[in-house]
Amino acid sequence: MSNTESSLSEQQEIRLEKLQKLRELGVNPYPFEYDVTHHSADILENEDKFISEDDTEDNSHSVSVAGRVMTQRIMGKASFFTIQDSQGTIQIYIRRDDVGVEEYNKVFKKLVDIGDFVGIKGFVFKTRTGETTIHAEEFHFLGKTVRPLPTPKEVENEEGETVTYDAFSDKELRYRQRYVDLVVNTDVKKVFKQRTQMVQAMRNFMNDRGYMEVETPILQPIYGGAAARPFKTHHNALDMDLYLRIANELYLKRLIVGGFDGVYEFSKDFRNEGLSRFHNPEFTQVELYVAYKDYNWMMDFMEEMIEKVALELHGTTKVTVGENEIDFKRPWPRIPMYEAIEKETGFDLAGKSEDEIREIARELSIHVEDEMGKGKLIDEIFGETVEPKLIQPTFITDYPIEMSPLAKKHRSKGGVVERFEAICNGKEIANAFTELNDPVDQRERFEEQARLRTEGDEEAMTVDEDFLKAIEYGMPPTAGIGIGIDRLAMIMTNSDSIRDVLFFPLMRPEKD
């Protein structure tokens, strides 16, 4: 056992002894409830409402707060400590003569540790140094911690610089123990609050336009709607294999067939792929489908919605991401895919055969596999040469038909479809089509995907006969889009990794 583990074990043993002493004193270390009337931010932001002008230590506005003990300055008959609740931290002043000798001497001074939950009832005043503080008139023990929190310490070195020791900063440990990360690294909460605010702004934007939020199956007998490998499971009662959805597109389009003009879903999707800074096998996206619209309308819709999200989160359309300032102000550039590739590489891929494109990829030193079809080859070239350079939000439009089995053929250009991807900060954040509603054409595209599967492309789509049946009943002209919530949240919160915007990202098993 390492010295760290030995030290931690000793601290746990001490806390367990304190737990027993609390019980011996008749104090329930884990009571059932506590009446909280205010939170730290309520008090600190509205202190004039709580503090009497003529007497700083007497106020008819009593408060009841609760939270974790985060710092302690234990003195003789009176002490200061801080508690952290869901909104922030606030200082508490506690005196033996107010809360009682036993409560103060035996419980507070000897048995309360950093991280313990306590409840305080009292009044608000300002200390001589001007800090808004709660004067405790009642002290209640609410929860004993038996494992100590990491406690960063700031020390001034010989050069007068402030140095932090024992910070809970190891990223892998933070992701594994998010519950600790949220307690000791308070800025982390801000990221997740902004993520929720972002999702709510998008939801409000779509609701205000009359689109209906729906739910579709996560367990699917046939997976589809994207090019990806699925997770597979088995239903015992029906004795059938099922898949976790990789997208909810085909079910939402079934609802357009059924007569809804606009439906959307914030969905958890699952793709059996590797982990990276931009990929988690379980991720969130919102998909929206609107009848009688096309991809041109959807570009207008998306840039208006994301501009509004930036304004709601930051009060400006400009967002700082790493070293870049990204401006979501409309309109965003719109560049056809072949044109974007030619600009960066000098190669015009339009009309080229699969073999010609494979040879161009090799000339560009891009690694390609023999089983890659034309669409995959073009996607690799675009991903290596163009996508990383698109920092400002940009629409890449008019994708090769081989890359887009669910999109409608372009109305005026041969060999491409009416599709766009929104690229920002070097990564795709959205994918959208003028949806294919021709059942004959759709069947041919599915069959081509089936051929690619037989040639080794594990991410090629499968034939979904029920979806084909649905659009054979007739689907109106429709625009559809999927927006990656996790990647958009990374940009909106200036987060470096997708794991920074997921409460509990998937992690490799811990080694002993």
From TrEMBL:
Binding site for Mg(2+) 2: 428
Keywords: Aminoacyl-tRNA synthetase, ATP-binding, Cytoplasm, Ligase, Magnesium, Metal-binding, Nucleotide-binding, Protein biosynthesis
Protein name per Swiss-Prot or TrEMBL: Lysine--tRNA ligase
Cofactor(s) needed: Mg(2+)
Family membership: Belongs to the class-II aminoacyl-tRNA synthetase family.
Keyword Transcription part of the UniProt annotation: no
UniProt xrefs under InterPro entries: Aa-tRNA-synt_II, aa-tRNA-synth_II, aa-tRNA-synth_II/BPL/LPL, Lys-tRNA-ligase_II, Lys-tRNA-ligase_II_N, Lys-tRNA-synth_II_C, NA-bd_OB-fold, NA-bd_OB_tRNA
Catalysed transformations (reactions): tRNA(Lys) + L-lysine + ATP = L-lysyl-tRNA(Lys) + AMP + diphosphate
PROSITE patterns: AA_TRNA_LIGASE_II
Main location: cytoplasm
Binding-site list for Mg(2+) 1: 421, 428
Subunit text: Homodimer.
Gene source species: Rhodohalobacter sulfatireducens
CDD domains: LysRS_core, LysRS_N
The record's free-text note on cofactor binding: Binds 3 Mg(2+) ions per subunit.
SUPFAM superfamilies: Class II aaRS and biotin synthetases (SSF55681), Nucleic acid-binding proteins (SSF50249)
Catalytic EC class: ligase
Upper taxonomic lineage: Bacteria, Pseudomonadati, Balneolota, Balneolia, Balneolales
Location in or out of the cell: Cytoplasm
GO molecular function annotation: lysine-tRNA ligase activity
Any Pfam family: tRNA_anti-codon
